[in-house]
Amino acid sequence: MSRLFKLAFLAAAALAIFPAAKAEAITLSRTPTLNGELPIVIGHRGASGYRPEHTLAAYELAIEMGADYIEPDLVSTKDGILIARHENAIAIVDPTTGVITEATTNVAELPQFADRKTTKVIDGVTITGWFTEDFTLEELKTLKARERIPQIRPQNVAFNDQFEVPTLQEVIDLAKRKSEETGRTIGIYPETKHPTYFDSIGLSLEEPLVETLTANGYVGEDAPVFVQSFEVGNLQLLNTLTDVPLVQLFGGAAQQPFDFIVSGDTRTYGDLATPTGLGAIANYADGIGPSKRLIIPTNTENQLLPPTTLVSDAHQAGLLVHPYTFRNEDVFLAADYNGDPVLEYEQFFNLGIDGLFSDNPDTAFTVRNRVAGNPNQSVPEPGIVFALGLVPLAGLLHRRNAQSKA
Known about the structure:
The protein is α/β, with parallel strands linked by helices. The chain has two domains: 2-80 and 166-400, Phosphatidylinositol (PI) phosphodiesterase (TIM Barrel); 84-159, no CATH class. Helices cover 28% and strands 14% of the residues. It has helices at 2-17, 56-64, 137-140, 168-182, 195-200, 206-215, 233-241, 258-263, 269-272, 275-281, 310-316, 341-350, 361-372, and strands at residues 40-44, 69-71, 73-76, 82-84, 89-93, 100-103, 118-122, 125-131, 187-188, 191-192, 227-229, 246-250, 287-290, 320-321, 355-358. Strands 9-2-1-15 form a four-stranded parallel β-sheet. The chain has a four-stranded antiparallel β-sheet with strand order 6-5-8-7, with no helix packed on it. A hairpin with a 5-residue loop joins strand 3 (73-76) and strand 4 (82-84). Helix 2 (56-64) runs parallel beside helix 4 (168-182) and helix 12 (341-350) packs across helix 13 (361-372). The protein starts with a helix and ends in a 34-residue tail after the last helix.
């Protein structure tokens, strides 16, 4: 644990010298990241501001726009293959009207799968629709991806029905290929979705994930991968199965990890975000992925409030901070930004975050380089390629002492 405490001491000293930005002054002197590294840009489900999310086209575009990592949300097929979808519900129906309320595939239009429509309870929520765990991979490969929020991103509808649902392995293959082509690291940032639910139906996510990562050379705490989850227990399990970096996601302060609800644990994400909670997280994870509103809240008028101490508190615990989700559309921005997403990126980068999830990685990349890096850099600087065409992130992450594993 000695390295962790050294990092915490250095972070605390840096924060004492560089105070956090305030909401009323959006662009101020930048606070350093946990370990002085450039903040990473994570292509949230790919470049999902420009292509239907969780498609190889979206991931590839994110890489071309400068993303350091691409993020696949992982769910399981009936035959235990991990695929990239935002949810296991790939089309959702209003049971009263029969209207499709959300769809990331065209499954609802295919008569051969009409009998797969069903109603399930996922993490306490009743959902009617079609679910990945009721399809084999071969069947899912006959589906086509669609824009999830066409009312906000009508331009992406032009790409509907052009792309398949990718597997985790296909996402990894893309990251490796683009690493070799560009000479720079393309990391992956998978999220395990609904792990308690998938455990309950005999389709555990953790073991096949670790098996796939290991088979592809993602081994050790310097591997260019982060594994994230909103649940706690599955990250603690993963910490015993692999040494790759783990990230605890936070929902709203009053919300709870679903495994806490099942076990009767009354703690909320707000409790986990306290210095005590962060210290406990540091025993099994390397970072946190909070909603950006846990860092800079807004009031009922969607106006910014002063930043919280979450970034500095996490850094003092030796944890990286990767907030979500940054999107260019005005509907996702606080009123203070006046429709300009650049102002939001500037404020968060100035607070010393270690990276962020963005639907628009080109914007994130440009602002990141101007605020925290080289404004003339057209693509991230290439590193030294290691075996399998990937670049280690030596020194990026604090090492977890084996004795501290929870």
